[in-house]
């Protein structure tokens, strides 16, 4: 069984290779994970436990977990918010649409 606060590496799925922390034990096969992965239910077969622990309470918020991970010396990857993404990418200059002329292929007579 995975204990609450156990630091794991996700081995399968979209977030594979990322650091996850067990937040809650759902049943003998599933746990709730969060950290550098999306907060979601995960099969314990898809987690590789490490020796590290983070001191947290069951059901801690994402912000609280990130703070506990930083206190434990673990790297926290923060995702940019949509406002930050929009500010980082400049809006493209408006360009006038030009109608493309159809390509006319010359007709070749076959012998």
The assigned CATH architecture of the domain at 6-76 is Roll
Overall strand count: 5
- Beta-strand content: 25-35%
CATH topology of the domain at 6-76: SH3 type barrels
SSE run: EEEEEHH
Strand order, biggest sheet?
4-3-2-1-5
What structural class is derived from the secondary structure elements? alpha+beta
Mean pLDDT: 85
Helix content: 10-25%
Provide the gyration radius in Å: 25 Å
Individual helix count = 2
CATH class of the domain at 6-76: Mainly Beta
- What is the global morphology? elongated
Largest sheet: 5 strands, antiparallel
Q: Alpha-carbon distance between the termini?
A: 80 Å
Report low-confidence residues grouped into runs of 5 or more: none
Oligomer: single chain
